[in-house]
Amino acid sequence: MNKENQSKIIELVRQTKPLIFQEMTHEKVTEKGAADYVTNVDVAVQKYLKEALGNEFPDIALIAEEKENLGMDPDKSYWILDPIDGTTNLIRDYHLSAVSLGLYENGEITFGVVYNPFTEELFYGAKGEGAYLNGAPIQVSDQPEFKDAVVSFGSSPYEKNRAKELFPIFYNIFMNCADFRRTGSAALDICYVACGRQHAYLEQNLKPWDYSGASIILREAGGTITDWGNKELPYLANSDILACVPQFRKILLKLINV
Ligand code: IPD
Ligand code: CA
């Protein structure tokens, strides 16, 4: 993806802001599953970006959260889109929600944009070209000691049946780090590791659109992202996610897999 196309995509993502605010004036919430919501905002943003990206890049198909996620072929190129990551936050007026877009090609993510229209923070990263927040280069934290680490976790709200095995893992980590956060947006969590606000983020069984776009932003900022067994991410399938600064990877893997 050349610079000109990168700018075009960033601009398209930014253009969702008035649409998001407009749609929020007549918000309608539907429950897809337990604690799993979709609103007219999610649907409108997805429709807008599907059309806009389709017009600019007709050869790249879209995979997106709202009923646009069937038939993934690893040999093809895709946009992977979460129109609103942090839908519960959107409904509750937390202002921690983001449009998250990744470009999957040749088995990896080569470009990603994560945009929070409430804070006007736009993160992007391109393979081999660095990661940026509102145009300024970002880097992960070089803090040396895990006891000073801020770790963010996802509570897997749609899978409460797994909470009994999950929370002891969080407990182990909590007892060894400085403190926890729970933002409610996986994409923002990964970007917050990328820009040094926190040192790690972990969650079980995330969907491709939750982690793909942000993964390249983190890598380009010097961070690492794998599954909980330290394996490469699948991008077109669900995965447990461990996003962290390199110096805390070993200790986190140990605490997760005791
Ligand atoms: C959710 C958020 C949340 C995470 C959930 C995701 P959504 O995405 O990223 O932080 O805990 O697992 O599904 O549903 O708001 O797009
Ligand atoms: Ca979503």
Automatic annotation (TrEMBL):
Its cofactor is Mg(2+). It catalyses: a myo-inositol phosphate + H2O = myo-inositol + phosphate. It is an enzyme of class 3 (hydrolase). Keywords: Hydrolase, Magnesium, Metal-binding. CDD domains: IMPase. InterPro entries: IMPase, Inositol_monophosphatase-like, Inositol_monophosphatase_SuhB. Its EC number is 3.1.3.25. Belongs to the inositol monophosphatase superfamily. PANTHER family: INOSITOL MONOPHOSPHATASE, INOSITOL-1-MONOPHOSPHATASE-RELATED. This is Inositol-1-monophosphatase.
